[in-house]
Structures are given as C-alpha cells and as structure tokens.
Amino acid sequence: MKAIISQKLFPACVIVSSVYIPTPVVRPKSKFKVKFGLKVSCYLQYFWVYFYIDGKEVYKNWGFHILPGVYEHEVELTAPAEEGKHKLKVITDQEIAEGLPGKTIEFYVGTPTAGYGFLEVTSEPDGASVYINDNFIGVTPLIEKIKVGHYTLKIIKKGYEPVERMIVIAENKITRVHVKLKEISQPENRKWIYSLFAGVAGIATGILAGYAKRKGYHEIALAKAKEIIKRR
C-alpha cells in the first residue's frame, strides 16, 4: 500500500527510456559499449543508474540534470566469460523506489563460428512470440545464434495481427528484424452480433417488465375483491 501511494503522489522523475548495444554480439571478457536514454520529467534531478548482467550488479554511476528532457548516455562494460545469451538490465534508483522495472535487453557472448549467424528480433510492443520455421525460439526482444540459411520468421502476440517474413541468416552476421505490431480491430460481423444480442436483451426486458406490471394490477384487484367480500 505504501508503494502504491508513493507512486501516485511522487512519481519517478528519472526513468530509463531506452537501452541499446551497438554490437549485440561480443567476445567473452571483452569490453563493449552500452547506450541508454534517460527521461527526466523534473528540474534539478540527482540520480543513480545501476547495471545488472544476469541479475548481478556490474556497474553503477550517478548523474545530475538541471532541465526536463531525454538525455543519451554511454558506458563501457565487460562481457561475461560464459558464451551464450545474457540479459542486461538498466534501472535508476528512483525506479527501484517506485517498483518500476527499468529496461532489459538480451545480448550474445561468443566467438565467430563457421556456419552460424545471429538473429535479433525486436517489436513494439515487447513480449511477442517468435517462431523460426514454426519452431518457438523465445519472446521479443531476443537474439539467437542460428545456422546459416533461409527461414520463415513469424512474430505473434495476442490481440495483434501476426507478422510473417522470409529472412536470410549469413555467416557471422547479425540479421536484425524490427516490427510495429498492429492491433486487431473488432470485425464488423461481430459488431452486428453484439447489436443483435443487445436488441434481444432489450425486448426480453420489456416483456418481463410488462408481465411484472400486469401481475401487480392483478394483485391489487384481488385485494380489493377480498375487501368487498369482507364488508358484506
């Protein structure tokens, strides 16, 4: 309850609006750059920014902005030693205090491998299911190491129109796919059915109301008849 009240009365003035790794495939233990944007909504804001890789804090720094706006920053991190997919999370101290999630993206640690390339898929909004030749590989945003070849890519999210594309994975190259998902509009025939149901419900309500009214008149007449008999 305290967190909810705090979030409504004192919203975070500095939040992470974007995170981007120029090269989302890095070598083990190598240095790589991370670009991120901060959205500042208040004046004279002092803040801390924390960086986590796979849930472990790897870097933190403080900052200060005088005016509201969106500010771009860049830091250098060290890649993990383990090859494979990793998650980078960037969050401010104000987001932590308000229970906000910050921003999380995936990146890949590995060395060039003959016969393989990389596929990076992002979507607006996030959380869409990604399929390669009808095989589920994860949800957006994601990056996967895939054999060289031609594939059918499908991006699916409930409530949105599915997207299907043909892609080519080249050796030691990154194939990037970004889609803006379109919400599914309500079909016209479904609107017609809803209108029909509404009309039927209205008629039924009228019949029941008329029956109740007639029943009320009947009860009044019966009461009056009993009263006349009693007087006689």
Give the arrangement of secondary structure elements.
Layout lengths: L1 H8 L4 E7 L4 E2 L4 E10 L4 E9 L2 E10 L3 E10 L5 E9 H6 L4 E7 L6 E9 L4 E4 L2 E5 L2 E6 L1 E8 L6 E7 L4 E7 L7 H44 L1
Parallel strand pairs: 2-8, 9-15
Antiparallel strand pairs: 1-3, 3-6, 4-5, 4-7, 7-8, 9-12, 10-11, 10-13, 13-14
Question: Notable features of this structure?
Answer:
232 residues, alpha+beta, Immunoglobulin-like, 3 domains, five-stranded mixed β-sheet, four-stranded antiparallel β-sheet, flat, disordered N terminus
Structural features, described:
The protein is built from three helices and 15 strands. It is α+β, with helices and mostly antiparallel strands. The N terminus is likely disordered. It has three domains: 109 residues, C2 domain (Immunoglobulin-like); 74 residues, Sandwich (Immunoglobulin-like), CATH 2.60.40.1120; 45 residues. 25% of the residues lie in helices and 47% in strands. The protein has a five-stranded mixed β-sheet with strand order 2-8-7-4-5. The chain has a four-stranded antiparallel β-sheet with strand order 11-10-13-14, with no helix packed on it.
* CATH topology-level fold name of the largest domain: Immunoglobulin-like
- Mean pLDDT over the residues: 84
Specify the structural class.
Answer: alpha+beta
Strand order of the largest sheet: 2-8-7-4-5
Helix content: 25-40%
Strand content: over 45%
CATH-level-4 superfamily name of the largest domain: C2 domain
* Main beta sheet: 5 strands, mixed
Write the CATH architecture name of the largest domain: Sandwich
Q: What is the ordering of alpha helices and beta strands?
A: HEEEEEEEHEEEEEEEEH
Count of alpha/pi helices? 3
Radius of gyration, taken over Cα atoms and rounded to an integer in Å: 31 Å
In terms of per-residue confidence, which ranges show pLDDT below 50 for 5 or more consecutive residues? 1-8
The geometry reads as: flat
End-to-end C-alpha gap: 71 Å
Domain count, please report it: 3
The overall strand count is 15
- Return the CATH class of the largest domain: Mainly Beta
